[in-house]
Design a protein that fits this description.
Layout: H1 23-32, H2 36-48, H3 52-63, H4 72-84, H5 88-100, H6 109-121, H7 125-137, H8 145-157, H9 161-173, H10 181-193, H11 199-213
Helix pairs in contact: 1-2, 2-3, 3-4, 4-5, 5-6, 6-7, 7-8, 8-9, 9-10, 10-11
Length: 216
């Protein structure tokens, strides 16, 4: 698991701009310089002060065994505390960790879906894709193509190219949605503009079909 330490941190603090670095920024800088002992001490101080980003980063250091005495249980507890405080990055990380079987070596797709859903509802595009995929495949959640389409649409609106293409495909085929070729073309076109390699061909195909059925 290589979930990165948070570089942009929590948007709730706002952009730092030209202001002096915040304590959490200084703690991350210590980690990036390879000073794990200094980073640990800084994150622990901030964690005791209730900073969710510090809980998240310190938890990851435990889980990555980057501390002298790593504690995987403590790492999970810290991530959960950050997630419960509304830290979206921690919510998504917990989903991925449960999906990968990082806790006890056993994958827990239902637990992964619970955390992904929290992150998705908080606006994480990656989590929206994960929730949609779980419903699409019936993996960790009941198979429900309507719910899958809902979350793919949310992720598509958030700019995820894969979700844009999948949503277009569902509209084209009527798979989980009422068939709507105009909506299919709309989302294929957006996916194409965002770099999906297959989408331009789908736009041309739908345009050709529309031209063939248009009365002279």
């Amino acid at each position: 698991m290589r979930t990165p330490l948070l570089l942009w941190l929590c948007l709730a603090w706002g952009a730092a701009g030209a202001q002096a670095p915040r304590p959490i920024d200084r703690a991350v800088a210590l980690y990036e310089r390879g000073d794990h002992a200094g980073a640990q001490a800084a994150f622990e101080r901030l964690s005791r002060a209730g900073v969710a980003a510090a809980d998240y980063n310190l938890g990851l250091m435990h889980l990555r065994r980057e501390l002298p005495r790593p504690d995987l249980v403590e790492g999970e507890r810290l991530l959960q505390r950050a997630a419960q405080r509304g830290f979206v990055t921690a919510q998504f990380a917990l989903g991925r960790l449960h999906e990968e079987g990082a806790f006890g070596g056993t994958r827990d797709l239902a637990a992964a879906q619970r955390w992904y859903l929290q992150a998705a509802e908080s606006g994480s595009v990656d989590a929206q894709v994960a929730v949609g995929t779980a419903h699409y495949l019936g993996r960790g959640a009941p198979r429900d193509l309507g719910r899958a389409a809902y979350w793919f649409r949310e992720a598509a609106k958030g700019g995820d190219v894969g979700a844009q293409y999948l949503l277009a495909s569902m509209y084209e085929t009527g798979h989980g949605l009422t068939r709507d070729l105009r909506q299919a073309r709309y989302w294929y076109d957006i996916a194409a503009r965002n770099g999906d390699e297959a989408a331009p061909g789908k736009v041309k195909q739908l345009d050709a079909q529309a031209g063939a059925t248009t009365p002279p």
